[in-house]
Amino acid sequence: MELIRRALDQGRTVLSELESKQVLAHYGIPVTREILVRSGDRAAEAADKIGYPLVLKGCSPEVAHKTEKGLIETDIRTREEAAKAYARIISRSPGLESVLVQEIVKGKRELVVGMTRDPQFGPSVMFGLGGIFTEVLRDVVFRVAPLEKADCLEMMNDIKGRKILDRVRGMEPAARDALAEILIQVGRIGLENEAVKEIDINPVILDGARPVAVDALIILDKGVKAAGRGMSVNDEVISGLDSLFNPDSTALVGLPQGMKTGKLFLVAMRDMGYAGKLYGVNPKASEIDGVPCYQTVSDVPGPIDLAIVLVPTGMLWDVARECADKGVKGAVLFTAGGKELGTEEGRLLEADLAGLAASSGMRIFGPNCMGLYSSESGISFFPGLSKKPGPVGLISHSGSLANIIGRMHEETGITFSKMASLGNECDVNASHMLAYLGRDDRTRVIGMYIENIKDGRLFLDALKSTSLKKPVLLWKQGLTREGGRAASSHTGALAGSREIWEGMVRQGGGIPVFGWEEWVDSLMTFSMLPGGDLGNRLAIISGPGGLCVSMAEACGRAGLALAELNEDTQAALARFIPPTGTSLRNPVDVSLTASMVIDMYIDAARIVTADPGVDALMIAGIGLSPEDNRKYTAGMIDVQREAGKPFLMVDIPGLDPAHALEFRAAGIPFYMSGERAAEAYAKVIRYRAWRVNHTS
User: Which residues have CB under 8 Å from 9's CB, separation 6+?
Assistant: First the structure.
C-alpha cells in the first residue's frame, strides 16, 4: 500500500491516527468523519462542516497517549470553541502542527480490535472490551489470520463481557456481522502488508448497533518477515511417513555391543516382534546378539527403509550424509547435540541436516529424539510398550514422556496406534505428524505434548483439517516465562504467547489440556467412550452421600446437566433402596447399605441407565470385602455392556487399585475423583458439539 511504503521510505515506524484510519478505510472498515487542520480558522471551518458536538485531537506520528498529554478537547459546540481548542492543543506540544477535527460517536459501548504479528503464527487478530477496560480487565481473545466469519462470531462469544454485545439497558444488539467484517479485514491488512507489525483500534464504539473505529494506531517494522512455511504436507509426504512407520528393513547405526542406551532399540523391537529385516552398523563387530552387522551404512546389502542413528554427535553429520547417499527413506536421530545446547555449532549442524533432508528427500526425525513406535509393524523405541494395537496416536517433543505413557498401558488402559518422539525437528515436525495421523485410519484420537511449533500456520492448517475428523488433545509447554525457558533448553524452542496459542487452539478445534493427570484422563476418556452422539445429562450413583453432592457440583462446574429421572425410574429404585438416609432423585444416594448389599449398586445402575432422560452415568461405589468389590466390578462392566451408555467410574479410597485396571481393560474409564471425571467428559461433549457446528 502506497501510504505504508511512503512512511517506510521516510524512516517512520508509526502512522498517525489519520493515516492509520486511511488504511482501515481502504479495507472498508468504518471510521469517524474527520478533517486534518493546521490553523484555528481551519479548525472552525472544519467544525461547521462536520457538525456539533465534536472533538479535537493532536495528530502526528510522534504523538502517543494523547489523553495523558492533554491533546484531546471534547464536547466542542461552536466554531469559536473549535478555534480556541486548536490553540490550546498546539500550545501543549511544541512542534505539533496538525489537529484532527472529528465527529463524536454517540455510543456507550467500547470495544477493541487489534493485530499483532506473532513470530510463529503471523498476523493474529485481537478482539475484546475496549477503552480503559482493555488494560484493566484484559478481556481479549485472539485468532490467527485469515479469519472466517465463524471464527469472528466465536471470538465475540469467548470474551467474558460478551453480554455487552446483546440488547442491554435499551441499547440494541451489536451488528455482529459488521464486527466480524472488521475483524476479517484487520487480518487482511496484516496478511497483505508484511511491514505492518501491530494494529490498535481502541475504541471501536457501537453507534447504536453499528461499530465505528474512533481511534487507531498502526506500527510498522521494515524488518518484519512473514511467518515461514516449511515442508508442506501433501500426499507424497504422507506416503513417505507411512513407509517409515511400516519399514521392511531397519538399520541400527552405531548399535553397541554392550548393554548401553542404544541397545534398548534392539531390545524394544524384538520385544514388539518386529518382522522386517534388521541390520546393525558397527565397524568392530560382524554380529551383535544375532543381528548381522556391517562396518558402514553403505556396506549393508539391499535397501534400508529406516535408519536409527545412535552414534556420537561428532559422527552424526557423516553418518546422516552416508544414509542419504545410500537412499535411506528416513532416519531417526537419537543423537543429541543440536540447537538444544544453545551453541552456534549445534545450530549449524541442524541447518545442515535440514538442507540434507530437503536435497535428498530422506525424512529426518530429531536430532535428540527417541523416534517411532507402531503397534502394527513392531517398530519401537523402548521395551515394554504395548503390543496391543490401540486407537491413540501420540506426538511428543519429549521422548521420556512418550516412553512413560506408552509403558503405562496396563495401568491407564490407553493403547496406541503410533507414536513419534520428535526432538528438535530439523525436518519432520509436529505439523507433518498431525496431518499424517489425521489421515491414519487406525488412529481415532491424537494426543500431543508440544514444546514449540516450528511452522505456526502449517500447524493451524493441519489442526483444522484433523479436528474435523478426530479429537486432538494438546498439552503445550512454554506458556509461562519459566516454562518457556525450560522448553528452550530442552529443544531450543521458541515458546510463543499463551493468549495467541489458546486462540489458535480454539480456532483449530483442538482440545487444550494442562498437566499430566488431565492429559492422561482426557486420552483415556476420548479413547474409551463410544462413538456416535453423546449427551450432557448425567445421572450420579453413590453410597457415600457427600460424594453424591461433590460429584453433582463437579458436573455443574464443568457445564454438564443433572438428568431428571422419570417417575418410573424412581419407583423402580424405591423397591429396594431404603426410604431413609437415601435419595431416589438425581444424584441417587443408595446409602452405605449398598456396600453391604452390593446388588443395590448394580441394580440401581441397570435401572437408571434405562431411563431415556439419562445420557451417561457417574458411579462411585465400594464393597466391604474383596469378594463384594469383585462382584461390584464385574456387575458394572456387564450393565455397561448391556446398556451401551457411557459409564464414568469414580474411585472411593480403599477400593483395590486392581479394580480400576479391570474397568479400564474393559474400555470403561475410571477416575480418581468426580471432578476429574466431569471435566474429562465435558471435554468430549464440547469437542463433539464443535465438530457438528463446523461440519454442518
Answer: none
